[in-house]
Amino acid sequence: MISAYDRMYLENAMRVLGRMFDYAAYDLKIGPEEFAGLFTATGVAERFGKGDITLTAGKSGVEVALEVIRLSGLDAEIPEPVYSMERTPEYWAGWALAYYQWKTSRRFRDILATVGISEILALYEPYHEMDLSAFTDRMEKLYTSRRQESRLKIQRIRMGYSQRELAGMTGIPVRTIQQYEQGRKDIGKANVSYLLSLSSALMCGIGDLIQP
Question: What is this structure's pTM?
């Protein structure tokens, strides 16, 4: 498998992405899923994943986080960063994610749409004490198994909702959600109001729910 960019930039890129998620969570007070969505939607993730050295080597994690905020147009208060000697779970999640993306050359958008940042955070125990190869193997199993499932199910699991919880949030019958996930109904032909409700509840675009 060909890596996303030259290995000489990898360690720094991992530190940058780790600090980016750490700063977003603890200083900007933006939840990991919301920030991951901004990271991909602004195009910063696409550039980072291709090894843009202005991001992987030319900026700090805080600067990349602020670049995401600037491009998103989000009106957020920008506090002075607080530096910790300890690696937070958010730092580890970004750090490990950067390695997995480099190793697989997959787009951040595809990775995070399949295995959400919240799920990666949930792997902190016990994987932060293990070799990165163990994390990579676990991610690969999750990614490859999920890619065979419907996009709606992937997004629902990514957000940690049951089918019943999603139905309650959107007003869509549980049975209908089940039929979309099982492919017995084509979600691409769903009522626009259903698609809007689902995309809003799952914090994703409508295109992220429709099978290719």
Answer: 0.73
Fold assignment, 151-208: 434 Repressor (Amino-terminal Domain) (1.10.260)
Return d(Cα 211, Cα 96) in angstroms, integer.
28
Report the distance separating Cα 132 and Cα 144, nearest Å.
Answer: 18
pLDDT at 56 over 80: yes
Residues 21-30, mean pLDDT to the nearest whole number: 94
With cut-offs at 50, 70 and 90, classify the pLDDT of residue 1. low
> Dihedral of the CA atoms 52, 58, 60, 66 (nearest 10)?
-70
The pLDDT of residue 48 is: 97
Q: Where are the domains of the chain?
A: 7-146, 151-208
